[in-house]
């Protein structure tokens, strides 16, 4: 059965941030993720995780000056020290929260003439960030983000991300594959899944309906089919539910209830078959 994590930056926004952990647990989530947890004290978040039996599976490193519209610093010349300081802050949180992976955002490059310098900077910064995380036993995530929602974002395509992993060549560097962004940028989602998961390059996944980023049972992506493909590929990582509820978080969880029911029903015949095989073996 696939593992889904509630993104607490987008879900359960009906209540204050720290109260969202309890609501996610009540709805059957065992994993949670969020974008930037730094407005809260790390130990306060850790208490919520412990009290509600949850695992924090992902956080982002600080993105730079968010008020100025910055979306990461990793590819920006002259900002490497600031970027790595943010990675160190994220590591401090991750070690307190038990988070195994951190997403480091690339940044915005609007001038195509600056692309070569940004590429050189990005590879160097990722290499240094991956080394810092490796020392803490953590994985580094990079996420291609579609240029419609985030114009100028440096990392936008799945093939580009795979190429970055090959060039940096660090064991703890992985792709954070958001299927919403993949669909909006290039489509061909199931082939992209096969190429990246098949090569062991995906460390985390996220979902949302496209093109409106609502629940995954809305829009042009057939997630029922996508989920069967993920199961067939043997994907056993977390899937972050990073979507904006159309009418309220709990009102929109029907897609998850249907998946759980179908997965439980599918598991029953298999379990019955295993019991029969055991019975036959004992009596032969």
Provide a descriptive summary of the structure in words.
This protein is α/β, with parallel strands linked by helices and 284 residues long. The protein has a single domain, classed as Alpha-Beta Barrel (TIM Barrel). It has helices spanning 20-26, 42-52, 80-97, 115-135, 158-168, 179-185, 189-198, 223-233, 254-282; strands at residues 3-7, 31-33, 55-60, 101-103, 139-142, 173-178, 202-207, 238-241. An eight-stranded parallel β-barrel has the order 1-2-3-4-5-6-7-8, surrounded by five helices. Helix 5 links the parallel strand 5 and strand 6. Helix 3 (80-97) runs parallel beside helix 4 (115-135) and helix 7 (189-198) packs parallel to helix 8. The radius of gyration is 20 Å and the shape is globular. The model has no long low-confidence stretch (mean pLDDT 94).
Anisotropy-based shape: globular
| Order of SSEs | EHEHEHEHEHEHHEHEH
In angstroms, what separates the terminal alpha carbons? Answer: 32 Å
Largest sheet strand order: 1-2-3-4-5-6-7-8
CATH fold-level topology:
TIM Barrel
Bin the strand percentage. 5-15%
CATH class label: Alpha Beta
Number of helices: 9
Rg, Å, rounded:
20 Å
Helix share bin? 40-55%
**Main beta sheet:** 8 strands, parallel, barrel
Average pLDDT score? 94
Structural domain tally: 1
**Stretches where pLDDT falls below 50 for ≥5 residues?**
none
What would you call the structural class? alpha/beta
Please name the fourth-level CATH homologous superfamily. Answer: Divalent-metal-dependent TIM barrel enzymes
CATH architectural grouping = Alpha-Beta Barrel
Assembly classification = single chain
